[in-house]
Amino acid sequence: MSKRQLNVKIGNYIPRGKEIVSDFMKDMESFHLLMEYAKDESNGLDVQLRGKYMNIYYQGGSLVKLSGKSNCDIDKNYFYVTGKGELCMSDIERLSQPDYVEKAKLSKALKGRDSQLPELRKKALTIMKNISEEQNSIISKLKSCKTKEEICSVVKTMKMTMRNWKDGLCDSGRRKTVVGERTVQHYLSLFNKHFDNTSDFIVLDIEYAISTNAIYAKEEDREKQPRIDIIAIEKGTGQIYVMELKYGMKSVQGDASAKKHYEDYCATVGDEGKWQSFIDDIEVLLDAKKRTEIIDKDVTIKQCKPKFAFVLKQEKESDREDFMKELKELEKDSFTSIPTLFLPVELDWDNPKAESNKLTKKFMR
């Protein structure tokens, strides 16, 4: 471990996992039960560490956020299932403010409804009160669990609440599908936790936001730093890979083009003068995950520049050929070959051991 890691802050930010220390969640008696439940991959939960807190993900969303000695937070959005043409959550929050905003700043659902705003505000306040009561009730139950059975029951309720919310978004037309790129990202993390006969990579982290204060941040347009979809460790070598996940060819356009993502890598964690600082931060995260028993203690990483790779979840069989054309142009300009994993069209999320769920070199061209 480098000397830089001994500091709590590196470049005025807190590396992921740095403050997940011995007294983390010590005043929440049910924490160890929740972690035991979450670490069983058959339960569909994925634990990820952040700077000062921990997220437990479910089907692409944060089921619960844990911080400090006993703080729990469940996204209030999950407790409000909106119908088509009804108030959306952002409207409810705005209308609930003491100085609620004029119609121009509300959603299309409220355009032309000036006379109704006082009544809608009253409705919004009632909704927020009900959300808060339900939210606090579940948090209280989660904290007071004494047995595995109680944890199982409460988490089951939390899962159902999230699923109902996602289904509601689809039914109202605010979301096209319950399965998207974030869901695929979550499952890849969930099902690639250990090196075995099928997984060639361990997923160390997802949605890694590069701090504006990091040594390895982009110099240009510094306030708009990229996120790394997946950080993975290669079996046998300890090589760190930063992977950009794409969900079908519709996700490869404009600022999300293959070229743009590769350029961001070259300007940040792939820069010759910056990558060592990134690896230092990743060592902090790996150490924290070992201490919290999320990752096996014998996993190590190699002190070398991280490699870039794409992961394409194919929506249709032609996606591979189309993406290969994008790669051909990119590789011609960059004079390098970029590893790419092509995930099958059909995935088996109900089977944790299914080969289609694994990050394996069998799928890598």
Description of the structure:
This protein is an alpha+beta fold and 365 residues long. The protein folds into two domains: 73-171, no CATH class; 179-363, 3-Layer(aba) Sandwich (Trna Endonuclease, Chain: A, domain 1). It has eight helices and nine strands. It has helices at residues 31-38, 89-95, 117-144, 148-171, 181-190, 258-267, 275-291, 318-334; strands at 45-49, 53-58, 61-67, 71-73, 201-209, 227-234, 240-247, 307-313, 340-343. Helix 2 packs across helix 3 (117-144). Mean pLDDT is 88; it is low at 1-9.
CATH architecture of the largest domain: 3-Layer(aba) Sandwich
Morphology call:
globular
Number of strands: 9
Unreliable stretches: 1-9
* Major β-sheet annotation: 5 strands, mixed
Order of strands, main sheet, comes to 5-6-7-8-9
Number of domains: 2
**Class inferred from helices and paired strands:** alpha+beta
Determine the strand fraction and express it as a percent band.
15-25%
User: Would you tell me which CATH topology of the largest domain applies?
Assistant: Trna Endonuclease, Chain: A, domain 1
